[in-house]
Structure formats: structure tokens, C-alpha cells
Amino acid sequence: MNINKIILFLTILAFSFFSTISITYSDEVNNTEVKKEEVNLDDEELPAIDPFGTSSGGMSASPDANTSIEDEGILSGLKLIGVIIGQNKKIAVLVSKEGYAINFEENDIITKNVEVQEIYTQYLLVKDTFKDEAGLTQEKFYEVYMNDVIKSVDG
Q1: What is the CB neighbour count within 10 angstroms for residue 74?
Q2: Is residue 114 part of a domain?
Q3: 3 lies in a domain?
Q4: N or C: which end of the chain has fewer CB within 10 A?
């Protein structure tokens, strides 16, 4: 019985000795590893991609200094990039040429004569109010899609 206790004691002692050696060895290995450098995304330089540029790869999409408001379209250069629909609120996210995101809800005014009427999952319905040649106020409705397509809606 005494021999069994001695063998058991020596076995436990050997296991504890080898486990402390392996723990200290693994700590030394972990300390000698090369420290990975953390990259701050705010300092990272990102490629400049113009979402309003042409889709052809060979042409440069640089902003034109002679661009007027009429050339920017009904949304004054804004582009629909997302729609958020909740139980109580619907939000359309549009981005400007400079990269600023702007949130609009239903019945919000985008420009002085363009207003968001309704927000759907695939597109926005916007109303353009303008004066015709006779000086009468007219309204025209457009569907604005996320792929930068704007369709006129009749009625």
C-alpha cells in the first residue's frame, strides 16, 4: 500500500513539474512573437472613388467647374444609397458629391422645390414643384432608384 502511495505521489509531482515547464515555455514563446501593429482606419488612406462619375473605366471622373444646378439633376447631385424602413419610421439615405450622408423622412424637403413624398423598399417617390411657361405652379412626380435611375411617373 505504501508503494502505491509513493508511485501516485511521484506521478502527480512529475505532472505538475512538466505542466509548469510547458506553461513557462509557452509564455516565453508568446513574448518573443512579433507584435502585430494595429491599424487605425481613420489614419488609413482610402482610394478616392467618385460615385457620381461615369461607369466607363477609361474616363476620368473629375468634377467640372462649369457644372450648374440644372446639370446636377432633380436631386441637385444627391444619390440614393439606402432605405431604412421601421415600424414607425421610414428613412431614405442620400449622399452628396462630397460624400456626406443625409437622412430624409417622408414629406421632408430635399431642395427648395423637391420633396420626398413616399419611401418604398426599392425607391423613393419625390415631388418636383415648378412654374411652367404660363407662370402656373405644376407638380411632377419621380421615382428615384438606388442604381441612380430616376423615372418620371404619370399621374
Answers
A1: 17
A2: yes
A3: no
A4: C
Residues 6+ apart with CB under 8 A from 89: 105
State the total domains in the chain.
1
Query: What are the φ and ψ backbone dihedral angles of 127, each rounded to 5 degrees?
Result: -115, 130
123: nearest Cα among 91, 83, 73: 83
Cβ atoms of 91 and 102 within 8 Å: the answer is: no
Task: For the beta carbon of residue 103, count every other beta carbon within 10 angstroms.
Answer: 11
User: Which structural domain, as residue segments, surrounds residue 110?
Assistant: 76-153
The 10s digit of each residue's pLDDT in 44-101 is 555 556 556 554 444 444 444 444 444 567 888 888 998 999 888 999 999 988 888 8
What are the cell numbers at 124? Answer: 423613393
Cell reading at 23: 506553461
CATH number, residue 92: 2.30.30.830
Q: Establish if 101 belongs to a structural domain.
A: yes
Residue 146 lies in a domain: yes
Taking a C-beta distance cutoff of 8 angstroms, is the pair 139, 152 a contact? Answer: no
pTM over 0.90: no
Quick one: cell of 126? Answer: 419625390
